[in-house]
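Worked example 2:
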Amino acid sequence: MKHIDVAIVGGGPAGAALANFLSRLGHRCCLFEQAHFPRYHIGESLIPNTYELFDKLGVLSKLKNSDFPRKHSVRFVSPT
């Protein structure tokens, strides 16, 4: 690469989203990830609250057409 505007260390959800948004703004990004893909991950199910973010990332339609389990609601519980 002759010119890089932003170097991003870590290709997890935050790093990948940052690279996506910055590249759409015209920045040249280089994403560094230690793990080999596909890597182990958890979280193949989606809740509707995540749709706005996935729409901004430009991947919502692909996710909606995938085989991921659909969750129409979720409740988080703690001892307090």
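The chain has a mean pLDDT of 85. Strands lie at 6-9, 29-32.
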